[in-house]
Amino acid sequence: MTEYSRMAKGNFTATGTTQVINLPFLPDYVELWNYSNIKTAANNSVARAWWDSKLLDTGNNPTMIEIYNNTGAVVFDTIQTNGISTFSAGLSFQYGVVNQHGSAIGDFAINKAAAAQITTTNAHGLASGDVVIFANLAQTSTTGMQQIAGIPFVVTSTGTTTFTIPWNTNQSNYTAFNTATSTNNVGSYKQVLYPALYAPAVSIISALTLANPMVVSLTMPGNYVVGQEVAFRLPSSWGTTQLNSLPNTLIPGSPIYGYVTAVSASLTTPTITVNINSSAYTAFNSNQVFASYPGEKFPQVVPVGDINSGGWPYTGGALYPSPQFWNGQGNVLLSSINGPGIQGAFSNNTSQGFVIGAGAAAVDVSAAVTMIANTNIVYWHAYAHDIGMP
Question: For the chain, which domains are there?
Answer without folding.
Answer: 6-89+353-384 (no CATH), 93-192 (2.40.30.180), 198-303 (2.40.30.180)
